[in-house]
Each structure stands twice: as C-alpha cells, then as structure tokens.
Design brief:
By secondary structure, this protein is mainly α. The chain is built from 22 helices and 11 strands. Among the domains are: about 160 residues, Glutamyl-tRNA Synthetase, domain 3; about 50 residues, Helicase, Ruva Protein, domain 3, CATH 1.10.8; about 100 residues, Arc Repressor Mutant, subunit A. The site of glutamic acid (GLU) has 10 residues, from helix 7 and strand 8.
C-alpha cells in the first residue's frame, strides 16, 4: 500500500468556532493514524480567520480533547515546527499576497457589488429556480479601473475566476472521481471585505506551504472540492491526495444531529461533544475505538482496538464513505470491554475523581480493594459511585421496602437479620471463605431461598438492592461495620413490622 512506503504529512485544521464534536475528533484521529502508520507528520493548524464566529475557549478545548484521546502532533501552534505559523490569523498579509498573485494572473478579480445588489440577485435567481451564484458583473472589469475604485475608497471583495466552460474532475482516494461542470462552480469569494482570506484560499495556501500530502477532512467540503482543485491549479502547485470522510447521522440514521437533540442526549448520559465523555465516565480508549469504527473497519469482525492497534491496522482504503449513524449502545459495549482490560491500579485511579466529585473521600487502599469487585459490572466510570459509594459512607440508611424480600413480612426479615447477626458475630472474620459457608448453612436451616436471606443482608449492609458481590463487599467493609449495619436494619424492620 502506498501509505506504507511514503511518510505522509497530514493535518487537522479545526476552526475554533465552538466545541469539538465527535466528527472533528474522528477526522483528527484518522489523520493521526495515517501519520503514525507511515512514520509521517501530524500537524495541528488553527483556522481562526472567521472573526465573527471565533470562540476564545475553543482552541484549548480542541487541544485538551485531542490529548484526552491520546492524540499528539509534531507541529502546531502549541509545539511549533518548521512550517509555521500554525494559526491563520498570524498570516493575513501572506494570504493577501497570494490573492494578489491570482489577480495579476487573471485568476481572480475585485468585486464591488453591494450586499443589497447580491441579495436582489439571489432572490431573482431563486424565483427563476436557478442555483445561487454570482452573476459575474465585476468579472471583467479592467484591473486599472478596479484599482482606481479601491483607491477612491470603495469596498470590495476578491473572487476566484472560475472557468465557465468544460468540466473539472478531482479524484478522492475513497470516493473515486468527482466530476462537475464548471458553469456550476461559483466565483467564490476568497478574500472578504474585511481583508481576511476565506478558507478556500487560506487552507490551500497553508496546505501547500506546509507540504501537506493528504487532506483528510469532512464530507461538507466535497461541494467546494472542484474549486479547491482549480485554485491549486491556478497557482501551479502539486495537489494533495484528497479523502472526504463519511457523514455522522443521528442514532436513528435520519439526518444530522441538531443542538437541541444534543441537550436531550446529555440527559441520557450521552453527548456529541468529545470532552463531555470525560465526565460521563467514558474511557478515552473506548471513545477512540468507537469513533475509529464510524467510517472505517479492519475486517468484518474485529472490533476492539487500542490506539496502538489502530495505528497498525489503519489504512485509507478501508475507509467507508457511506454515512454512519451514531450508535451509543456500541460505545457502552466498548467502554465495558475497555474497563475490563484495565489493571486494578489503573481502574482505581480512574474512578477516584468520580468519588471526589460526589463528595466522597475514597482512599487509595480501599479503592484498590473495591476495583476488582466492581470491574465486571461497570459500563461507565461514574457508576462506581452508585455501585460502591456505600463502602465509604458512615451510614447506609436502607429503606424498609428494600429490606423486605419477596414473599416475606417485615417481621420475618427482621428475624433473618437477627439470625445472620448471630452467625456472623461469632466468626473471626467475614468474607467469602469464612462467612459465606456459615451463612449458606443458615439459609438451609431456615428453609428459605438464598436470594431471600442474602437479599436482606445485601440491603442491610450496602443500603441498595444491587451491589458488588456480597461477601467480598462485607470483607472490605469489615466485621464491626457490617454488624452495626445489620443491627440498624433490624431496628428499621422492627419499626415497620
Ligand atoms: N477549518 C475547516 C473546518 O473546520 C477545516 C477543513 C479541513 O480540514 O480542511 O471545517
């Protein structure tokens, strides 16, 4: 495969206009994987020329989000590199120079049309059912005249002069050839009236100057791909390989996710914003694994990958351009699998912040004991608190209705608790080896079901109906506390009898 031989230079070029979403994370990931796989370079470039949509916190969130996934880069605004600056606002004059070059060559022109005129033109085109496009009024203005108008203080933009005849064909590595008729390509604005270059110019200049070999980006750029091809050709530059990724669809496969739906998702413990997954209790390993498989596959059955395994397995020719529906059930599955792959020490360290956030002071020694008994049951890290918070609380305050087991009265359950107390009290320790056999003997003696007796005990000791394995839990809690909790349960049951 070509990418195995030649180290690539690829970039992730986000616009800091909002939060980093899953699609952006995935674009960054694929670029990173290709760079790693080929021993190439991965570059972070901040495309911040859109002053109106600029969000100050966005760059930090992008960097933090990518680092959380385990992605790093060799060149970028934060790490430097030989092909900088890596922030487009540091290059206004440079883009301007390239725009002037296109004007000199006759591949771009100054346009003085007012926004009112453009709005009228658009309306008229809509009425005639034409696709919206610039009608070319300023396209053939003599350059001398245009320069005079600029000197006189007229406002203007710079437009690319798209050929109006023939067709343009561009090859996408995943999608094959894309051909359009040139008359359908608009004379796009490449420099706005505020003097800032637009993406179409700035990104092409940057990709050229940064020697980008492969542009891997979102499918929203397919419509303007022919324009980009023409701009590059006008400069006489080498064209990068193009890869346009698949679109993300809503979980039901119908359309793109809206902002409102994102808020709804958050209530269910999901999100489309990358850094939300940290507090929702997902592992970066799982999120990486999950987004990698939204638009790429290794074969028809291998699903679990670490980042290093992805580097080895990745290839551009296995990218799938078909739209991919976001599947959160799959994410949960991956998260569980990756949680079970963690060492006990690692799991203990990762759940700790969730206890802290819940106001529980969980000491490391206890967490190391608890981690192995919750590891099998967890889907997300935050569940450690609901599963195992009782280990750290002074009192568990069980509810009478939880203590009372199916088919039994409160009085009978109180009796079970008292008898359990009597059995456990005599033992030197309580746990799986000493404790469980004696309690099983009690179950037999009482002629009850294990679920009934252990049900009372579980709720008494943990305060909840669902818990990690009972005897392992009791061993960690310690005999004294276990007995005190059973005693309390007896009181609750008696007062409800
Ligand atoms: N700034 C563009 C965006 O955020 C980058 C697209 C590209 O990768 O070229 O969509």
């Amino acid at each position: 495969m070509m990418e195995k031989i030649k180290p690539v230079r690829v970039r992730f070029a986000p616009s800091p206009t909002g939060r980093l979403h899953l699609g952006g994370g995935r674009t960054a990931l694929y670029n990173y994987l290709l760079a790693k796989k080929t021993g190439g370079m991965f570059i972070l470039r901040i495309e911040d020329t859109d002053q109106k949509r600029y969000v100050a916190s966005a760059e930090k969130e992008i960097i933090d989000g990518l680092h959380w996934l385990g992605i790093d880069w060799q060149e970028g605004p934060d790490v430097g590199g030989d092909y900088g600056p890596y922030r487009q606002t540091d290059k206004k004059a440079l883009y301007r120079q390239y725009a002037e070059q296109l004007i000199e060559q006759g591949d771009a022109y100054y346009c003085f049309c007012s926004s009112e005129r453009l709005a009228e033109m658009k309306q008229a085109q809509q009425k005639r059912k034409e696709f919206p496009h610039y009608d070319g009024r300023c396209r053939d203005l003599p350059l001398e005249e245009a320069r005079k108008r600029i000197e006189a203080g007229e406002k203007y933009v710079i437009r690319f002069k798209t050929p109006k005849e023939g067709t343009t064909t561009v090859r996408d590595l995943v999608r094959g050839e894309i051909t359009v008729e040139n008359r359908t390509i608009d004379d796009y604005i490449i420099v706005k009236s505020d003097g800032w270059a637009l993406y179409h110019l700035a990104a092409m200049v940057d990709d050229h100057m940064m020697k980008i070999s492969h542009v891997i980006r979102g499918s929203e750029w397919i419509p303007t791909l022919p324009l980009h091809h023409l701009i590059i050709r006008a400069f006489g530059w080498d064209e990068p390989e193009w890869v346009h990724l698949s679109l993300f669809l809503k979980p039901d496969g119908k359309g793109k996710l809206s902002k409102r739906e994102s808020a709804e998702l958050m209530k269910d413990g999901y999100s489309i914003f990358l850094t939300d997954f940290i507090e929702l209790g997902y592992l970066p390993e799982a999120v990486t694994n999950w987004i990698a498989l939204m638009g790429w596959s290794y074969d028809d059955h291998t699903e679990i990958f670490t980042l290093d395994e992805l580097v080895n397995a990745f290839s551009v020719d296995h990218l799938n351009p078909a739209p991919a529906a976001i599947n959160f059930t799959k994410l949960d599955h991956f998260n569980g699998v990756h949680i079970r792959r963690l060492t006990i020490e690692d799991l203990a360290a990762r759940v700790k912040p969730f206890f802290e956030k819940a106001g529980i002071d969980a000491d490391d020694a206890a967490l190391l004991k608890i981690a192995p008994i919750i590891q099998e049951r967890m889907v997300t890290l935050d569940e450690a608190v609901s599963l195992a918070g009782f280990f750290f609380r002074d009192e568990v305050n069980p509810k009478a209705e939880d203590l009372i087991q199916k088919g039994l009265t409160a009085g009978q359950c109180a009796e079970i608790a008292e008898k359990s107390y009597a059995v456990l009290e005599k033992l030197p320790a309580i746990g799986v080896e000493v404790g469980e056999p004696e309690m099983r003997a009690l179950v037999a003696e009482l002629g009850l079901k294990p679920a009934q007796v252990f049900g009372v005990l579980r709720v008494a000791v943990t305060g909840q109906r669902v818990s990690p394995p009972l005897f392992e839990s009791m061993e960690i809690i310690g005999k004294e506390t276990v007995l005190a909790r059973i005693k309390k349960a007896v009181e609750i049951l008696r007062s409800n009898a």
